[in-house]
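G., before I forget:
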Amino acid sequence: MNRLARLWDSDIAWSFRHSPVAIVAAVVAVGMIFAAIFAPWIAPSDPFHPASLNLMDGFTPPGTPNAFTGNTFLLGTDDQGRDILSTILYGARISLFVGFASVIFAMVLGISLGLLAAWKGGWVGTLVMRIADVQLSFPSILIALLIFGVARGFIPPGQREQAAIWVLILSIGLSEWVQYARVVRGATMVEMGREYVQAAKVIGVHPVRIVLQHILPNVMGPVLVIATIGLALAIIAEATLSFLGVGVPPTQPSLGTLIRIGQQFLFSGEWWILFFPAMALLALALSVNLLGDWLRDVLNPRLR
Amino acid sequence: MLAFILRRIAQSVVVMLVVALISFTLFRFVGDPVASIVGQETSVADREALRERLGLNDPVLVQFAGYVSRALQGDFGISYRLQQPVGELILSRLPATLELALISGFFAFVFGVAFGVYTALNRRGWLSNTIMTVSLIGVSLPTFLIGVLLIWVFAVELQWLPSFGRGEVVDLGWWRTGLLTPSGRASLILPAITLGLYQMTLIMRLVRAEMLEVLRADYIKFARARGLSNRVVHFGHALKNTLVPVITITGLQLGSIIAFSIITETVFQWPGVGALFIQSVQFVDVPVMAAYLMLIALVFVIINLIVDLLYFAVDPRLRVERTPARA
C-alpha cells in the first residue's frame, strides 16, 4: 500500500495525471493490448476455425442483417463470411506479438552490444559503432526487407510459411537494434566516469557485475523511451511487410495482412473490410507513439 | 577542401566494396546457383561442368574480383524468376522510380519549407495549428495506409485520379517518361503525395524548429533594429541560416524516398525498381536482390557525397581552413 502511495506521488505519475493526451493514449493502448490477449474469449467467433464460417454470411455490411442468413455483425464480414471484429482482435494479437518480440530482441541485442562497445572500447567498440553507423544510414524497413529475403533463402520452401513469423521478428529486430546500442553506449561512457563505478572497481567487484548491476539500471531510462517508440515502429514495420506480402502467411493474418486483403475489395464497394483494420492499426500505432513521446518528455528534464 | 573531397570519395569506395562483398555473399551462398539454372534431369557430370564453366570452383577471392568487375560493367547475372539479365531489368524500370522519387522529393521540399516558415512566423494562428495537427497524423500513418486511403477517396469514391500504373508513357529512346502525357501526369499525383507526405512533414517540422531558434538570435534583433523590412529579415537573414540542416536532412531523405518507393510502388502497381525488388524478395530471386542492394547503396553514397559538397556552397564558415583554435 505504501509503495502504491509512493508511486501515486512520484514525478512520473503526477505528469501522467496532468496530461490528458497521455491518459487517452494509455487507455487506448492498454485496452487494445488486453483485447488482443483475451481475443479468444472476447471475439464473437473464431475466424480461423472452418466450422464457425458460413460462406452465406460473406460481404455483410456493418450493423445490418445479412440478406440470406439474417445474422448481424457489428463491423461486417469479409468475402468468406468471417466477422471483421474477430479478425481484427486476432490480427492485433499477431501484430502485437511480433511487435513486442522484435522490440525485446532488438533491445537485448542493442543493449548487449552497446555495453560491450562502451566497456571494451578498442577495435570491438569501433567495429560495433561502424556497423551501427552504416546501418543507420539506410532506412530500417529496407534492412528488414533484405534480411527477410536472405533468411528466406536459407529456409527450405516447405517450411517458409511456418517460419515466417520468426523470420519477421528476426528481421525487424535486426533492423532496429542500432538505436539502443548507440544510446546505451553513450550513457555507459558517461556512467563509467562516475565515482560509484570507480569505487566498485577499487573494491574489486567483477567487471560483468559492475556493468550489469550498477551501470545498466542507470542507463535504462532512455532505453525505455526508445523501446516504447520502437514498439510503434515495429508494429508499423510488421504491418508494412505483411501488406507487401512478405510478412506473416494469410492463414495467420496480422493487421497488415487484413489491410492487404481489404484493399482487394475497395473497388467493389466493400469498404469496411479495409477500413476497420486500418483504423485499428492507426489507433494502436498512434497511441503507442504518443505514449512514447510523453515518456520522453517526462524522462528528459532538459526538455521541460 | 580538395583533401576533404578525396577523403570522402575514398570512404565511399570502401563502403561500396563492403556492400559489394555482402551482395556477392548473397549471390554466391544463398541457394545454389547451379540448381537454379539446370533442370531436374541434368546429370551430376553436367552439373559439375557447368559449375566449372561458371567459375564456381575458383578461389572465393577470384570469384569476388570477377563479381565486382562484372558489376562495374553492369552485369549482375540472370534473374532466376524472369530469366532476363538483371542489369537490363533494372535499367528498364529505373526511369519510373526516379521520376516518382524526384518529383515527390521536390514537392516535399517546396511545401515543407513553405509550411515550416509559415507555421514558425504565425505560431498561434488556426491555420498553423491545423497544419501541425495534420502533420502529426502524417508522421504516424504508415506509408502504405496513406496510399490505400488516398486510393479509396480519390480513385474509388471521387474517381478523379487513376489508382494504378503509370498511364501513357512516351519512349524517348533511353528514357520512358510519363510526364509528357495527361494520363501519365494524372497517374503520378497520388503516388507522389503518398511518397512525399512523410518527408514533407519531416522537413516542415525541421524548418519550423530551426526558424524559431534563429528568430531569437541577436542578429535578427539587430536586423529589425536597423529597420529592415520583415520580408528581408525573414527570408534574407533567418531562412538562409536554417538551410544547412534542412539541406542535410532533405538530401538524406532523398535516399529514404527511393527506399520507401518500394512500398508506394507496390500500392499503386507502379512499374519501378522497388516493385521489382519486392517480387524478388517474395520469390527469393537472389541476383535481383543482390543487384538492388548495390544500386541502393550507390544512390546513398552519391547522395551523401553531394550533401557534403553542398555544405561548402551553403555555409561559408566551412570554406575557411580550420584554424587550431577551432579544432
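The interface with chain A takes residues 15, 18, 26, 30-31, 137, 140-145, 148-149, 151-152, 156, 163, 252, 255-256, 259-260, 262-263, 266, 277-278, 280-282, 284, 286, 289, 293, 296, 300, 304 of chain B (CB under 8 Å). The CA atoms of residues 144 and 277 of chain B lie 16 Å apart.

More on Monday.
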